[in-house]
Design brief:
The complex is a heterodimer. By secondary structure, chain A is mainly alpha-helical. Chain A folds into 2 domains: about 5-55; about 65-325, MetI-like fold, CATH 1.10.3720.10. Helix content of chain A is about 70%, strand content about 0%. Chain A has a two-stranded antiparallel ribbon. In chain A, helix 4 runs antiparallel to helix 6 and helix 6 (about 175-200) crosses helix 8. Chain A starts with 9 loop residues before the first helix and ends with a helix. Chain B is mostly helical. Chain B has helices at about 5-10, 25-65, 70-75, 85-115, 120-135, 140-155, 160-185, 185-195, 200-230, 230-240, 255-265, 270-305; strands at about 75, 80. In chain B, strands 1-2 form a two-stranded antiparallel sheet. The longest helix of chain B has about 40 residues, at about 25-65. Chain B is flat, with a radius of gyration of 28 Å. The chains are: A mainly alpha, B mainly alpha. Chains A and B meet through helix 2, helix 3, helix 4, helix 5 and helix 6 of A and helix 2, helix 4, helix 5, helix 6 and helix 7 of B.
Chain lengths: ~325, ~300
Amino acid sequence: MSSRAISITGRARGRAAGRPSQTGDRVLFALCAFAGLVVAAALVEIVYQLVSNSSPAISRFGLGFLVHQDWNPNFGHMGAATLIYGTAVSSLMALAIAGPLGISIAIYLSMLASPRVRGVVGPLVEMLAAVPSIIYGFWGLIVLVPFIHGIEPGLHTVLGWIPLFGPAQTTGLSIFTAGLVLTFMILPIVASLSRDLFLTVPNELKEGAAALGATQWEVIRGVVLPSTVSGITAAMVLALGRALGEAIAISFVIGDVSQISRSLLKPGATLAERIVNQFLGTSTNLQLASLWYAGLVLLVIGLVTSLAARLIARRFDVERSYAKAVAV
Amino acid sequence: MTPPLDIALAEERLFDPTAPLVASGNLRRRGAMDRLIRILATIAAGIGVAMLGVVVYSVVSKGAPVIGVGFFIHNPVGLVAGGIANSLLGTLEIIAIGTLFALPLGVLTGLYLTEFAGADSRTGRALKLGLDVMQGIPTIVVGLFVYGLIVLPLHKESGFAAAVALAIVMLPLIARSSQEVLLLVPGTLREAADALGVSRWRTVLTVILPAAMGGIATGAILAIARGAGETAPVFICDGIFNTQTTQLNPFAGVPSVPTYILTIADQAIPDAFAHAWGAAFVLLVVILLANVAARALLARSRAKMGML
């Protein structure tokens, strides 16, 4: 009868304002907010741990650590230039192979394959991401390294005019082998992210181009690739980030030497792999701190790649596809 | 406006009605290009599948011969005999403890993102960014972090530290997948609960979580499979000094399957490799089966969601 009957009061008003009112609601909110805080705290703590444990090396070498080549724990000369070089070269090589290959697979899956074939081939390629790095490493050591050892002289003979393919090493442990193993690991990321991107291109656009007489390749080149180019770039950056941070698989096949050589067919070392190889057997505190410093560099690389991918592809939620691809 | 050059040229030619209707010149080239690309893309897909085939074939052909009941129930005897019972138990324990941390935290984070922080609110966006960044951190760095956080203060590598590291690897995966599937829960369910005057926490517990259960389980299975094969953080935090005996005290060095393979590979005794292949075989089969199961579960829960 009176206006009191329809005005909301107390608890209901709190709910309407979106504030948790009941005890149960408050408990649930507190739990969820706590979980969010744990994520934030973990991130802060990760940065703190890495910085504080590498501080002896940071104060001793500063940024010079990044450009010096010596890695000599006994004399206290520590530099990560060799490691950064090996990390960059092996990862870029993997990206140079996995990028075009992955995009081609994505084109096949999103536009050429019949639904039944797609349902089989897609998951099979994605499963490459499910194989653990220890298995890639062990397989690389026992199967791939002897194989590469066998073909390296041939590679040098045929491709020797490119400075990257210098005289072959006698072991088969090389940056080239490491790059191949990384190719296996990042191919599924490039392929499934690109496929998801291609599937977002509206059919109207593709059909419109086809109605104008474009062949399927012209539709891909003229419509599909240009409209997803930022997303594909971001996918590449994410895949690169994953390759740069890989530790175990590389530690099996790269040889871990402290020398920069221009040839891909020579052994090398990477940041993550050096940590695995030396962390449990350091001889000096400075060496330990230098390994932490290498970890800090990796952390920065990881942060930069995630943020760069996000910035490049504002329009696409590539991180979402990435989360699915690496979870598989 | 003059017409483009090739059209102008074509118009100059006389129309010949008896000419056969076949693609020629430019059109033929375009058709050939199109076929070439189709063939290349198909070959690329073949290469992708072959890459999986090569790895799986190696592991199966070299690992299957040592598999038997004894491989699962005996501890290693030296490096060339026995089984991997202790490593399997250790991996199960480390994963179980890691999941105990990561699953509730991950699901609650997903709930926070969908139920409390709007998709476009500042905290929601910051948290999602945090999860993405966390996922982009190399696992070796996660291992270093937990080493500094737990191993250094306790002066001892432990299975517990490895479990915490795995939890950090799994957390963003579980949180992201939970959030995804919680967003898929139809708004009508929430509205129906609201209309009945059900409080928020009861809605979450009795309506939203049950509806999203299949998807959350899928994400959890995938994250667990990922964690089971993760080696770098376990190696850093748990050490590789105990591979021979059973150890279930999480505050001691717990053996695990990945570090077992790592140790054997480091020894470089070819006779021992058969056992490492066997361990790799078990690990790969479990992980691939978990993946297939997760996909099936996801398809089922999607179908269920669609019906709601």
